[in-house]
Amino acid sequence: MARKIIHLDMDAFYASVEQRDDPALRGRPVAVGSAGPRGVVAAASYEAREFGVRSAMASATARRRCPELVFVPPRFAVYKEVSGQIRAIFRQYTPLVEPLSLDEAYLDVTENLKQIDSATRIAREIRAQILEQTQLTASAGVSYNKFLAKLASDLRKPNGQFVIRPEEGLAFVEKLTVGQFHGIGPATARRMNALGIFTGLDLREQSEAFLLQHFGKVGRHYFAIARADDQRPVRPDRVRKSIGSETTFPENLTALPDLLAALAPCLDDVWQYCERTGARGRTLTLKVKYADFQQITRSRSVGAPLAGLAALAQLSRELLEALLPVPQGVRLLGVSLSALSTGEGVGNMGIGQQLRLGL
Which of 81, 104, 167, 168 is labelled catalytic? Predict the structure, then answer.
């Protein structure tokens, strides 16, 4: 029996919450983030997106694209509270909820608590409840696997839903460009294009051996999704692979004491997550972005999970010292911990914890 999978995605979540709570922002282009010279857009309203403003864009660039853009500071405690309301609605229908972030999740409703046969009806009911309880809209994709459900949820945004039935999956996938595949980024799409692979049909015509040769282990996944095949289950106990935090500075830094002081809040973010969830990791990665936007990473793995904030700080200091003297000023530092174990398996950390917006 085919599974019934729903991918629910809130529409411009952070910006929509701000517009909901401040009527003066409704209908206006809104960016959640900092308007400062080193600021970054965390989220953009649909009005702002019409001007090409996107999340993770430098605020200065966003302002040039949309001079009327209104910046509002993020309120992550509010977003987390609303996310809790939304997940409570999900769990009225199924315990099989896999959060991906504060604003999206997969649901397996093949067997559901309300014994509703139609996944399309369930998605419609959930979206209606979200609107009634939060005054926010959500979009949904409904299909027989996660890959297709994720693709489908983007097709009727905002405030809509789309269904891909089992008999439609293969034809749907073959018409896509490889760049439209979830999980195939711009760099991989360019590599595929160089090999003559432009569409889902082109990808399906490649042998598994060919894809493994050119893309490594992930080639097996590409072989499957080109055939609209995705056997990954919805996992409410999904274990995180990494946890990270980064910060952009108002001014470029060069001296070791300044760099260490700037990195300390990021280490605190990571360790607070570890303390809260019981997760521990063995690989620490330092991320450095220089004034010319060149970006490098340095990693080190240890034999046993790092047991405290002091251990994280010491290892990150060693990685940083190895880069000194810096060839130019540093505009961003970040740290992430991977090879995690004994975590609670929640969805991705919200952007507020990953990114301290420059002021």
Answer: 104
